[in-house]
Give the backbone structure.
Amino acid sequence: MQIKETPKEYDAIIVGSGAGGGMATKILSEAGMKVALIEAGPFFDPKDPVTQTQMKWPWESPRRGASVNRAFGDFDMSYGDWKVDGEPYTQKDGTNFLWWRSRMLGGRTNHWGRISLRFGPTDFKHKDVDGLGDNWPISYDDVKPYYDRLDKMVGVFGSNEKRYNDPDGFFLPAPKPRLHELYYIKGARKVGVDVIPSRLSILTKKLNNERGVCFYCKQCNRSCNAYADFSSSSVFVIPAVNGTGQVDLYVDSMVRSVTTNDEGKATGVSYINKKDRKEYQLKGKTVVLGASACSTARILLNSKSKQHPNGLGNSTDNVGRYLHDSTGAGRAYFVPALMNRKTDYNEDGVGGMHVYSPWWLDAKKDKLDFPRGYHIEVWGGMGMPSYGFGFDVSSLNKYIGGAIGGYGDKLRKDVKQFFGAVVGMAGRGESIALRDNYCEIDPDVVDQFGIPVLRFHYKWSDYERNQAKHMIDTFDEIGQAMGGIPMGERAGKDKDWGLLNPGQIIHEVGTTRMGNDPKNSVTNKFSQLHDADNVFVVDAGVFTSQADKNCTWTIMALAMRTSDYIVDQLKKQNI
Amino acid sequence: MKRRDSLKTLLVGTVAGATLGSTIGCKTDETTTTEATNVAAETGLYGRTPKEIAHDNKVNTEVYLNEHELTTIAVLCDIILPATADAGAATEAEVPAFIDFIVKDIPSHQLPIRGGLMWLDGEANRRFNKEFIACSDAEQIQIIDDIAYPDDEGKKPLMAPGIKFFNRMRNLTLTGYYTTRMGLDDLGYTGNYANVWDGVPEEVLANHDVDYDPEWLAKCVDQSKRMDIAEWDADGNLLT
């Protein structure tokens, strides 16, 4: 098979069109750079009625939205989930890492929760506080200007709260809490847990003339046809492709490796066109990897050459290492006071929560047996029924001394009286990045394109287990304080206190982490490979540590910073 | 602007921002909402990928449940959710068709449903010497009353398979029913249309021991200014 080369040389070849790749595409193309954007999945536009799921009714799906074809249900806007056909990944040493991949323009940003939290000053220097992990080579002050630009560029609602480690920003106004959220606020305050308006990249107010304003359908996970929430497809990539004339978009194209020359510098990428299953090469002055933390690590590890025998950027064996995901645990409460509630008003609100609890404690002062914090997300309300609605609904009678089971009018009464009477909480916390948690190339397995696949090795430590216990203890306190009764069995020590699998929170970071010392990091403080100065990483791989926050807002702020740096370096002809 | 027009624009247009401004204060009409949504659904799809379309087509050509089984399911569905003064019965909401589809789509339902139906006929034969659907209403209810409630104390060990089966039938019937327009109306569900959320209505707050505190409300969106483009001062205070 002959590899097909294109003679054109791009200023930048960007791999991946999600949060990081989308941002790089926007910044580089607007700066006049000639850009190739390569996406492994198909073209996707949230406003295309053919692919749209937003505002659909449950009966439009014959399975009523069940998760047969999509892990989060028929209406969730992600092509690909824990499994992608023909593209396996493997585990070793009893690991059960769950890896979510969205193969489509915009990647996971089409369905994500839009929770957009800046990291705070402590988050960049947490080793200074507890001696664990490593400090970032940059500080909050380095990133703050980019967070500020990002707030205004993309839009995020929230509130300025003057909290040291949850910095203020340029927020759109928050939506008013829903009924169950008022219960949560009351319960949390009673037990001394802070609650503030949530911070989500959804336009509660007009940001510009290109995008619509939220019309409160609660369906951000279906991707917004009015572009009122942030998806990289609608907000970054499609405007860049249509507007600047600087972007060549390659969809359904699976990058195999970065190509390099005799000096070890990148010359472009090699990719498989999924449609004809042939290999192609593109040439570029720079290569910008935003394929996702693990996919970028995979591409680098598969980019072996005479100059980079251990894989590109991997001369010190750090690519794939320090992989870490947010921790997660959750619990649900039946709230009798919410029974028989009035339903004759639309309480959908925005997609996701209107209020949340940022980390409110201090590991040292509060003498906790785990070092890092977590935030609490709250859910509930009168959701649109889909597959699973009504399952075992009658069993809720056990909490109020009612009869379980039955049929007919009694059953209809059960369905109605319990509708919207459950409130749930989920903790999302920071884990410690460990060198021994990693992804690597499985020497024995290739995907359907002949590309060697990733193999995962990941173990939680007691830091995360103890944190999960604290989460469910706290949920139970808040639950009780808001008049709720815990549902289901409380996970014990044997089940790690309900700690979810690594990967399951879909915040995997750290595989190409930044640092000043090439011996223990892959990229420098500009997300530039130590081993090849014209290769950059704009996804969460560069995170030295994940915070008790979600990673997307920081991915984008750093991608903007790196893109500015690339423009500067190209203009100065330094790379 | 008529609501239907505005929704059409919403669903197919990019100028939704401007359009939405004019929907504030428009009365919500669920009928037109449904019609408007169906404009986008004229492709006959619900946002499927080619692979998903192929999956649905394949499931639709398969046959699992036979006529006798589906007839029995219809009888059970209407015992579980018979018509009321205000709402139709499960069969009117085409719940048996949903169950017919879902057991093919989620094969783990197949054996429990098929075996459970046979258990039911066996029980009817044992008691009344005829299949379940041939039993009188009173006879059917006599069996159902023995399997419609949990038996935590194990007083009816012979009914255990029936209890398990009926629980699954009840679950699928409830899901199949409350995911239809008829079911949503019966439930009183009033979401899934474009609107402007401005907080829990006063009368609802009055029914619950919660309230909005003014300090919090000050951080919330003033919906009369939602169409004014956001501008901030240097400290992040919203000016518009």
